Amino acid sequence: MNAHPNSQSKRLMPAEWEPHEATWIAWPHHEPDWPGKLECIPWVYAEIVRVLAPGERVEILCHDERVADSARDCLERNGVAPDAYRLHVLPTDRGWLRDSAPTAVRIGERGERLEWVQWDFNAWAKYDNYALDVQVPAAIERITGIPRVAAQRPDSPGRPLVLEGGAIDTDGNGTLLVTEECLLSEQQCRNPGLTREGYERAFAEYLGIRKTIWLHRGCPGDDTHGHIDDIARFVRRGVVALAWEPDPRDDYHEDAVENLRRLQAAEDASGQPLEVVKLPMPRPVVFEGQRLPASYANFYIGNAAVIVPTFNDPADREALDILAELFPDRPVVGIYSRDLVWGLGTLHCLSQQQPCA
C-alpha cells in the first residue's frame, strides 16, 4: 500500500455504469443490524447475486466458515451457479461494503491501470464497533492484486481522510455529487476542521474530480447523516436522478426542493447544465416506530442489470419505469427491500464495484 498519494499519477473515478470485473458484497451475519429479521436477509442477498451473476463475478466476504457454508447453501438453493461467485472468509463487523471497502479509480495517462483508494472508516462517526471493518481494504487489495493508496487529509498530511463510498457519486468525467449534511455538519463529523475547499482538494487528488456539486441534506431515517446515494445519482453524463417528494407535509419535502434548486443551477465538470429526472419516494416505511431510509435512489448499476429496492408500494412501478427509460441498455430489476432497509441501508449501500482493468 502507498502511504502517500502519487502526485504524478492521474486518477479518475469511473462511473458505476462503466464495465465491472466484479461486484463485492459481504454476507449478512450481524444480527443487531436487523434485529429480529436476520433470518430473512440472506435470501435477499441470494437474489441480488442471482440477478448480478449473469454479467459479472460476485465476490463475497464471509465472517467465518459457518457463514461461508450458509452462504453457499443459500446461493445453491437459489439457483446460482458455483462459478458465478467466490467466497472469502474475512471477519467483519457489518456488511455495508459501499462504505468500508475501498473505492476503485483508474490511474495512468490513459487510465490503463486500477488502484484502490482506502478511506479511513470510523462507522459513520456513530458506532464504536468497526475494528474488523477497517481490515476490509487490505483484504480486497490482497485478493485482487490491485494496489491500494491511503487517502490523507490535504490540510494535515499524515492524517487519514475519513469518508464512505455512499457519500460520493460521480459521472466518471470529473463531476461529483455530495451533501453538506454528511461532510460539513458538526453532527457525526468525519473530519473535524476540514473545509469545503479541503474536501474538494482531496476529491481532485484521489478521484480526479474537477467539479463538486454540494447538495443540502439526505433523506429521513438515514443514520449516516446525509449520504448522497439515497437521494441523487448520476445515471449517465449530464443526467441526475433525484429522489423527489412533492408532499409538503413530508419531512423530506423541503430538502428535496432545495436539492432540486441546486442541481438545476449547477453545471458539470464540462461546463454543461444538468438534466434532473425526478424519482418518486415510497410512502414512509416505518417499523417499530422508526422511519427507515427507504429510497429508490439506492439502486445499483451492474453489468447485466440495474437492481432497484422496492417496498410493496404503489410508487414501485413508477420508479422502475423511470429507471428503465434511463437505462435502456440493461434490464431494471426490483429487489424487495422492506426487510432489508430495517438495517438502515439497501442495495447500493451493501455493494461495491470493481471496474474492469
Based on the model shown, name its key terms.
357 residues, alpha/beta, L-arginine/glycine Amidinotransferase, Chain A, four-stranded mixed β-sheet, 10 helices, globular
Summarize the model shown.
The protein is an alpha/beta fold and 357 residues long. The chain has helices at 41-52, 65-77, 97-100, 123-126, 136-144, 180-183, 196-207, 253-265, 315-326, 347-350, and strands at 11-12, 20-26, 57-62, 85-89, 103-107, 113-118, 148-150, 169-170, 175-179, 211-215, 232-236, 239-244, 275-280, 286-287, 290-291, 300-301, 306-310, 332-336, 352-355. It is 24% helix and 23% strand.
What can you see in these coordinates?
The two termini are 19 Å apart. This protein has a 4-stranded mixed sheet, sandwiched between helices. Strand 8 (169-170) and strand 9 (175-179) form a beta hairpin. The chain is globular and about 50 Å long. By secondary structure, the chain is of the alpha/beta class. The protein contains 10 helices and 19 strands. Mean pLDDT is 96; it is low at 3-8. The chain has one domain (11-355): L-arginine/glycine Amidinotransferase, Chain A (5-stranded Propeller). Helices cover 24% and strands 23% of the residues.
